[in-house]
Amino acid sequence: MRNSSTASNRTLPASRSRGFDVRLILALSLAGSPVAATASAAVPAAMAAPILEDTQLADCAAKSKLSKSAFVANSFELKNVTLKSGEHLTVATGVTQCVCAAQNCPTVVVLAQKGGAYRTVLSGWTIESKILPDGSAVLTSHDSAAVSDRSIYRWNGSTYAVVRSERVDARSGTVKPMSLPVAFAANASSATVSGKAAQGFGDTYTLHANAGQTMSLALRSPNGKRLGGFALYRGEALVAQADAHWSGKLPASGEYSITIDGGDETLEPYALTISIR
Fold first, then answer.
1. How far, CA to CA in Å, does 66 sit from each of 92, 171, 265?
2. Residues 134-160 pLDDT 10s
3. Total-model pTM
4. In sequence order, what are the residues at sequence separation of 6 or more whose Cβ sits closer than 8 angstroms to the Cβ of residue 224?
5. Closest C-alpha among 145, 150, 146 to residue 108
6. Is 203 exposed, middle or buried (0-12, 13-18, 19+ CB in 10 A)?
7. I need a labelling partner for 72 at 20 to 30 A (CA). Which of 4, 36, 106, 258 fits?
C-alpha cells in the first residue's frame, strides 16, 4: 500500500524487492574534459569515491578486491552527454549484476566536478533513465509489475531539481501525482477528497497536524465496490491502518500521509473524509 520507490537528489536505499536492470551513473564535469566513453577508461579516484558512497555498490567493490577506480572502470560503461548550457555529463551504465538491485537498477548519480572534486547532484534507482541535452532528466522505477513511478527533473545550473513526480498504471495508462496535499477550507476542521484507486495503484494525501490532535478518517465507495482500505503514516512510521474507519490521537507534530488502496485491479471511485480536532 505504501509507495516508497521514488527518485530523489540522494541515493535511494534498495529496500523493496527489485529485479535485474542496469545502474546508471552521471558525472557532471563543470571544468575540464569529460571522461572518455568506454567501459575500460581510467576512472579518477575522485569520481569513483562518491559513486561508491552507495552502500550496495561499496559492498560490491569490497567483494571484488579491486580498487575503487578499477571496480568502477570494470563495472560500468561510460558515455558522454553535453547539455545545451555547456555542462558535460558522463553517464555510467552498470554492466555487472552486483551493481543492480532487483527490478530497479539504473541509478542516476550525477557528479558535479569543481577542480578535482566531485559532488553528487542527482541519484535514484530506476528501470529507465533519460538524461537529455536540454537539461531535463526522467527517472522511471518499478513499484510493481503493473505500476511505475516516474520523476522528472530540470538542471538549474548547479543541480537537478524535481519538477514533478508521478505514478503510471500500465493496465489503464492512467497517470497520477505521487502525492496530493489536503486543503481545508477556512475555519473548517474536515475535508473530503475523492479519486479512483486500483490495487497497488491508489492515492497518497499529505497534511500537517499537531501532537495530541484527534484525527478521524472515513473511507467509502460511492458505488458500493470493495476498496483496499487506507494507511496513515508519519514519515515512514505506520500510525494506523483500517478498511473504512479510524479515529485516534496523533503521536507527534509534523507531516502525515494517507495512502488509499483499491480492492482489485479495476480503478474504482472512493471518497475519504479527514477530520482533525
1. 18, 44, 47
2. 999 999 988 888 999 999 999 999 889
3. 0.76
4. none
5. 150
6. buried
7. 4
